[in-house]
């Protein structure tokens, strides 16, 4: 037997997936649980202990495995005191507490320098801004990013996995270590972070089972899990966010790249994930929460029967925090003189057309800024199930879209563990080949 457990936590749910590598890759879901943030005293928190309980339940249900790897969303962290006690609950990246701190940081290090050193797109929740809004650091001995925190609780071993560390905007993507300049000027003590480790490095044991560092930033694992068969591909990791971009051997740190707000996050095997965050299906998820319509299929059917009418700027910062998303979308349409959607189907259509439009612009920018051409777009993650969105994306980009796997993140996580354990061999391309051969892709051609 050779089977591994991938713990994959997303913004709305967590799962523990088991990958059996005895014959190809067989994936089964051992456990799935909700991730429901909690607002206390005006601050939005992750319910980290509930998530950890979900991880423990999942690992119990997974049964005996040869390895465990953990990935989650980026940027967020827990602080520990000298006794290893958690100093309060980790704050959610959609909390607005960083707003006043951003200008403070950018006054100490201008955005041009911050980008030239880290290559990270401006997002108000980047760890460097969160830390400036944080008072608990004065009590802290240690800072652990979310996957590293869960891994520490499982194993007692502390480390900082490098792909996720890049989302802090404190790391230099050329050296793949902390930027001394940014740390100094932003006044961040990078000694709070335990030593850096790479995907595939050992990360301790849980109940006798090896725990491996993987691409612990979920997007790093998702990109590793893209079943590309050539180098010339773009990807859209489509879930709550849409992470849209290219894989490159080196970062692009030009001023033009900064102006276009592209990020150079680190990937598995020394790669760079050159991408932009596009506000993704979050737009629809928040509408559904407000409408109390959990049935996505119904909305997509209604939207498919409608023509394209209004397109909003998906990345408008007004859409970032939780709240009245239909109201915000309606206002954005009215302000730009476009028809205001009335029914949930019309809102859904507007969201999907707007996403496809944002993908097209992002891919055009990525190709222009990096000089890399692509022949195909891989859509992975939950959004790969969304047939209308995949077709609209192919149409907008004028490229074929290959959709799936839905569980690319878990697969990318599992492959890195399996290789570290010796159950699979080869470079990223070889691992992707394995993926391409173990699934039937769904292809959408531009119309
Ligand atoms: C996706 C993701 C994005 C990151 C955002 C916040 O789940 O990890 O890559 O920008 O969440 O961490």
TrEMBL record:
Record keywords: ATP-binding, Disulfide bond, Kinase, Nucleotide-binding, Rhamnose metabolism, Transferase
Domain Carbohydrate kinase FGGY C-terminal: 234-420
UniProt KW Protease keyword: no
Annotated transmembrane regions: none
Keyword DNA damage annotated: no
Highest taxon of source: Bacteria
Residue span, Carbohydrate kinase FGGY N-terminal domain: 64-206
Family to which this protein belongs: Belongs to the FGGY kinase family.
Stored PANTHER family: L-RHAMNULOKINASE, SUGAR KINASE
Designated name of the protein: Rhamnulokinase
């Amino acid at each position: 037997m050779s089977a591994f457990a991938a713990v994959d936590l997303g913004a709305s749910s967590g799962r523990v997936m088991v990958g059996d590598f005895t014959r190809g890759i067989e994936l089964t879901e051992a456990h799935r649980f909700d991730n429901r943030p909690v607002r206390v005293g005006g601050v939005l928190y992750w319910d980290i202990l509930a998530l950890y309980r979900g991880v423990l339940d999942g690992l119990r249900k997974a049964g005996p495995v040869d390895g465990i790897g953990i990935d989650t969303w980026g940027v967020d962290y827990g602080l520990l005191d000298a006794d290893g006690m958690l100093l309060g609950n980790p704050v959610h990246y959609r909390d607005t507490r960083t707003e006043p701190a951003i200008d403070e940081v950018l006054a100490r290090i201008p955005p041009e320098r911050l980008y030239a050193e880290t290559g990270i797109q401006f997002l108000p929740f980047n760890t460097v801004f969160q830390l400036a809004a944080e008072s608990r650091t004065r009590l802290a001995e240690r800072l652990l990013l979310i996957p590293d925190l869960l891994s520490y609780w499982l194993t007692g071993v502390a480390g900082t996995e490098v792909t996720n560390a890049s989302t802090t905007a404190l790391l230099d993507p050329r050296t793949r270590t902390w930027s001394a300049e940014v740390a100094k000027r932003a006044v961040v003590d990078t000694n709070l972070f335990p030593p850096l480790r790479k995907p595939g490095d050992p990360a301790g044991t849980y109940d006798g089972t090896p725990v491996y560092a993987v691409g612990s930033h979920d997007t790093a694992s998702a990109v590793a899990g893209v079943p590309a068969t050539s180098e010339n591909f773009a990807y859209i990791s489509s879930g709550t966010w849409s992470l849209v971009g290219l894989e490159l051997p080196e970062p692009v740190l030009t001023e033009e790249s900064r102006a276009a707000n592209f990020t150079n996050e680190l990937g598995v095997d020394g790669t760079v994930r050159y991408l932009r965050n596009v506000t993704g299906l979050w737009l629809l998820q928040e509408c559904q929460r407000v409408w109390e319509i959990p049935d996505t299929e119904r909305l997509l059917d209604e939207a498919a029967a409608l023509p394209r009418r209004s397109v909003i700027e998906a990345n408008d910062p007004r859409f970032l925090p939780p709240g009245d998303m239909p109201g915000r979308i309606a206002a954005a349409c009215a302000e730009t003189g476009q028809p205001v959607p009335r029914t949930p189907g019309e809102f859904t259509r507007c969201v999907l057309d707007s996403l496809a439009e944002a993908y097209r612009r992002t891919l055009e920018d990525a190709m222009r800024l990096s000089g890399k051409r692509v022949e195909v777009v891989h859509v992975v993650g939950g959004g790969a199930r969304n047939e209308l969105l995949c077709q609209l994306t192919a149409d907008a980009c004028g490229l074929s879209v290959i959709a799936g796997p839905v569980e690319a993140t878990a697969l990318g996580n599992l492959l890195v563990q399996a290789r570290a354990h010796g159950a699979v061999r080869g470079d990223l391309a070889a691992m992707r080949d394995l993926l391409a051969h173990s699934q039937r892709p769904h292809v959408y051609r531009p119309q």
